[in-house]
Design brief:
The structure is a single chain. By secondary structure, the protein is an alpha+beta fold. The chain folds into two domains: about 100 residues; about 260 residues, Alpha-Beta Plaits (2-Layer Sandwich). It contains ten helices and eleven strands. The protein has an eight-stranded mixed beta sheet, sandwiched between helices. A three-stranded antiparallel beta sheet has the order 6-7-8, with helices on one face. It is flat, with a radius of gyration of 26 Å.
């Protein structure tokens, strides 16, 4: 596969050189959006170009050493050098294969995190709150800032739903595999006979849309303002600062977003628009993924909210991720936000899948071309 992938590297070097030139162009510096787009692409290409240039150097040195094998005076030295070059070439081939695996274009994006209580009533709402606390701790460990946007508290101190924004480097890459249905099995505090109950919450991790990702006109949505309220209808604010956005009201595409945790109506509207754009982007992503699903070899979770992805078994202190069969008996640590082992295992599985797809694509194209 590598020789096929190597053929794609020369154009990347040319693109990298052109991007480097663009970064010194005053016109680029004067356009924040263009500058951000170019710097991101430049950053992506830099390690690939460096590895490719070193690969070429090693290949050239290998050819020179091979010629010296014919000279008795230098044959032994050349043989030793060839052994070292061979090892480095293999290492560089592995590095290039890893670097050329297609990346998720949204990995760097900030995130809208939505957690909703599903089956299980009060117990589900309590688990929703624990899930939020778990993600708050995880984000803090990775220098990510989680800010709650909207909540619907329940009488027992849980959340019927909660929306939050997560900002920071590679926020989506850190959280994207959390999308899906999370199931908890435990004995509720109100259970008098010690029976284990199963409750579920849904988690949606939506990459925040940038201006270039989603086109949204004020004519596409209706804005309503109202007074924020807490559990039981108690008033939270004394002004009508809460905002509800209804995208294409009355149509099949209708989306409703509320934001009421901020005291400023303007800020609440801005946050609601951020959530709306993220949901529209996710809708497009889901549509594109559905169309491409048949071409994928293995799914590492689609983020579909009906998909059970993980079970938290409290009596056995066990957490199981059903997508990759990963199990840990460190439930307390997981709920304390230490989910790195899960995230790393899922990331590795996704990497293997992307590498397999990248390997299959040239062979598939060649088969079609010769048929």
């Amino acid at each position: 596969m590598l020789h096929v992938m190597i053929d794609t590297l020369a154009p990347m070097v040319e693109e990298f050189t052109e991007l480097e030139r663009s970064l010194g162009d005053p016109a680029t510096l004067a356009d924040p959006k263009a500058y951000r787009r170019i710097t991101r692409r430049y950053s992506d290409l830099k390690p690939i170009v460096a590895a490719y240039q070193r690969y070429k150097e090693v290949t050239d040195a290998e050819a020179e050493a091979t010629e010296l094998l014919e000279d008795p005076e230098f044959a032994a030295l050349a043989q030793a050098e060839l052994a070292e070059l061979h090892n480095e070439k293999e290492r560089l081939e592995e590095e290039l294969q890893a670097l050329l695996v297609p990346k998720d274009p949204y990995d760097r994006n900030d995130v809208i995190l939505e957690i909703r209580a599903a089956a299980g009533g009060d117990e589900a709402s309590l688990f929703a709150r624990e899930m939020l606390e778990m993600y708050e701790r995880y984000c803090a460990q990775h220098q990510l800032k989680l800010s709650v946007i909207d909540t619907a508290a329940t009488e027992v101190g849980g959340y019927g739903k909660v929306s939050a924004e997560v900002r920071g480097e590679n926020a989506y890459a850190h959280l994207k595999f959390e999308s899906g249905v999370h199931r908890v099995q435990r004995v509720p505090s109100t259970e008098t006979q010690g029976r284990i109950h199963t409750s579920t919450v849904t988690v949606a991790v939506l990459p925040e849309a940038e201006d270039v990702d989603v086109e949204l006109s004020p004519a596409d949505y209706r804005v309503d303002v109202f007074r924020s309220s807490g559990p039981g209808g108690q008033s939270v604010n004394t002004t009508d600062s809460a905002v509800r956005l209804t995208y294409k009201p009355g149509s099949d595409d209708e989306i409703v977003v509320t934001c009421q945790d901020g005291k400023s109506q303007i800020k609440n509207k801005e946050k609601a628009l951020t959530v709306l754009k993220a949901r529209l982007l996710e809708r497009e992503r889901a549509k594109a993924e559905a169309e491409a699903r048949e071409a994928r070899l293995v799914q590492i979770g689609t983020g579909d909210r009906s998909e059970k992805i993980r079970t938290y078994n409290v009596p056995q202190s066990r957490v199981t991720d059903h997508r990759i069969g990963f199990t840990t008996h460190e439930l307390d640590q997981v709920l304390a936000g230490q989910i790195d082992p899960l995230v790393e295992a899922l990331t590795q599985a996704d990497h293997v899948q992307r590498l397999a797809e990248a390997s299959a694509a040239p062979a598939k194209a060649e088969a079609h071309g010769t048929s």
